[in-house]
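> call design_seq(struct)
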């Protein structure tokens, strides 16, 4: 196992990314786990191949067997997307902010690649909402069924929700979400060469992994932590990362503390994910095949 090299972002790009993130913190919906990011890298450019020492390969099952069609389904063939290509696993990605609020996403992937996905968001600050909007009525959690790549959300108001997916290509959407500022990829991409060093072998979540320590500076702020790669699939399966709040707040009024990003994946016997039966009398239940 050799230390990973880094493909540098130009300084101007890095500053642009940090500036965009700082601006997003002033918006009602933080661009993170539950919102599609509008800026920033979408690939773990500095970690993907050097960790395994091999060219990027096909994604694999948790058992180590190739996943048919996995690469075609992924937006970018990087370690986070190869995590999405694994089968019979569960993972949680959590972003704990310096102000005590948190965002998290739980994903269960069955042996066929279908998913059960749960999101949790902090309550929106009433000061950021239009006058007259009650923040208490805004949902802070929701659940998606992902079948054959399409995402469906249960709705009491729409009895035919099983026939009307809210995302036609949810894998692409999920990939964009986990590559946002509440995920590890953007910050690992911004780190300079030498920031990621090998620590040894480790077993986490049923995976035999290569562990690396993270310690580097971005815009004068230290990003620290550890990452774990499953080398056979070249997938990122565990992360503990601390990002200074100053990188995510107004540069003129930097916050103290840090954003703690954790990713934990584990092999699991996930029941097959299917859509619930349509209520009797609904269009979905009476539709002719």
């Amino acid at each position: 196992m050799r230390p990973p090299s880094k493909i540098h972002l130009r300084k101007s790009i890095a500053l642009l990314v940090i500036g965009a993130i700082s601006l997003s913190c002033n918006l009602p919906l933080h661009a993170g786990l539950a919102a599609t990011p509008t800026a920033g890298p979408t690939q773990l450019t500095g970690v993907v191949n050097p960790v395994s020492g091999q060219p990027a390969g096909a994604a694999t099952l948790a058992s180590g067997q190739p996943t048919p069609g996995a690469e075609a389904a992924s937006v970018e063939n990087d370690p986070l997307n190869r995590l999405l290509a694994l089968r019979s696993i569960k993972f949680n990605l959590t972003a704990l902010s310096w102000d005590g609020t948190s965002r998290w996403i739980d994903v269960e992937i069955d042996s066929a690649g279908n998913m059960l996905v749960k999101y949790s968001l902090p309550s929106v600050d009433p000061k950021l909402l239009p006058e007259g909007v009650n923040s208490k009525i805004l949902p802070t959690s929701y659940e998606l069924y992902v079948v054959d790549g399409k995402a469906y959300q249960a709705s009491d108001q729409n009895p035919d929700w099983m026939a009307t997916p809210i995302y036609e290509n949810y894998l692409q959407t999920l990939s964009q979400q986990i590559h946002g500022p509440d995920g590890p990829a953007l910050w690992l991409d911004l780190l300079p060469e030498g920031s990621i060093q090998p620590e040894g072998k480790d077993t986490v979540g049923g995976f035999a992994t290569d562990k690396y320590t993270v310690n580097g500076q971005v815009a004068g702020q230290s990003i620290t932590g550890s990452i774990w790669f499953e080398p056979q699939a070249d997938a990122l399966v565990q992360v503990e990362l601390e990002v200074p709040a100053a990188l995510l707040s107004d540069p003129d009024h930097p916050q103290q503390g840090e954003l703690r990003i954790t990713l934990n994946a584990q092999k699991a016997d996930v029941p097959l994910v299917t859509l619930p039966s349509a209520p009797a009398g609904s269009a979905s239940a009476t539709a002719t095949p």
